[in-house]
Design brief:
Helices cover about 60% and strands about 5% of the residues. The chain is mainly alpha-helical. The N terminus is likely disordered. It binds zinc ion.
Amino acid sequence: MVMTRRQFLGVSAASMAAAVTGCATNPVTGRRQLMFVSESGEVDTDRQWAPHQFSSNYGAVQDPKLNAYLSQIGNDMAAVTHRPGMPYNFRVLNMVEVNAYTFPGGSMGFARGLMIQLEDEAQLAAVMGHELGHVNARHSSQSQTTAILTQLAVAAAAAYVEHKKGGDAAILTAGLGGIGANLLLSRYSRQNEREADALGMDYLVRSNYNPEGMVGVMDVFRNLFTHKPGAVELLFATHPMSDERYATAVKRVKEQYPDSGNLPRHRDRYMDHTAGLRRIKGAIEDMQKAQDMMNGGKLAEAQPILKQALTKAPDDYAGLVLMSKCCLGLKQHAEAERYAQQAKAVYPEEAQAVFVSGQTRLAAGRFSAALVDFEAYDKTLPGNPNTVFFQGFCHEKMGHRQQAAEAYGKYHAASPGGEHSALVQSRLVSWGYMAPPAPPAAQ
Ligand SMILES: [Zn+2]
């Protein structure tokens, strides 16, 4: 069962009431304002959920030099912000879309799809400055978003397989990427975007970068929106873009930073550090296109494009995981499992391939092998209720009713309104572990 928006909002309102912490000083404006989450709450939320989001975006790139380059830029810039003491951390993600995001404690991800589009370090620093702006002005804590993250975790995940009521196919749609892909990301208001842009340019110049980097990166995004709207769809959904934002940035450079023309952009340094990524730019763009098609349910069309991407970059973790999911959706079970095993082999520390491998084995009816995967995933990336559900499901299929009931009970306690609630409850009731739900009161 997929949670409807109404059910979801119902749960959210309840959890929100508990999460409001009252007034706090905004570190940027110095004014008191309503915050839904305390500073320690921001850090806890970040620690709890950022690892799940990073994994659903295929983890950090396995290129220590590139991650170190990004971290150096991030740490230097964070030092000039209003909240230099936050536990900032930075990684380039294997994600193929054009995107960057931050969690409220300062855990940030910059997609490969973004890195291959930027033209110099000043543009990267502009994106960094903007994300730092969101953390410093505490934007996600001013909205309900952070407060309800835990509820989002139980909402439906991206579904690549058609739902068939009651059958195993419906069960397989859940959590293909672990926790619902991108559901954990903050969605900012237009007012938040204005403020993050202003702060971003301030941090950019304070870090000795040319503020034209901000205008340049907006040009890149606007251009992509015209030619490849699918690639920036998520970015624009979370960070609303507008002509006004662009015009304001152009005006701000002229009026507030008139003497900034000679500040550096560091084009060569950026090109050197991203050379490895740009070598496989074609493959990343193919994956971008395929991912977009898969999101739209066009699996058969996506498959040849993924094949092409894997010809150009045969050991690409994101490419292999995507291909495994695509095959799974097309019911090519043996192929799906083969790609998942290959993905595990190229990036053993990353959890998503293990989860997808469990799904492929489940689909093929190999329940004990699937159980090994879900147990391994839970060790690497604990805290995803879907994993517990799938462990229970494997046990049930193997005839281990007691273990199945324990897992289902845990799932039910962790996410009572979750995607698998109906199935879990009906099993627990029919096995005698739970009383049947009370009939609705007479009118
Ligand atoms: Zn933003």
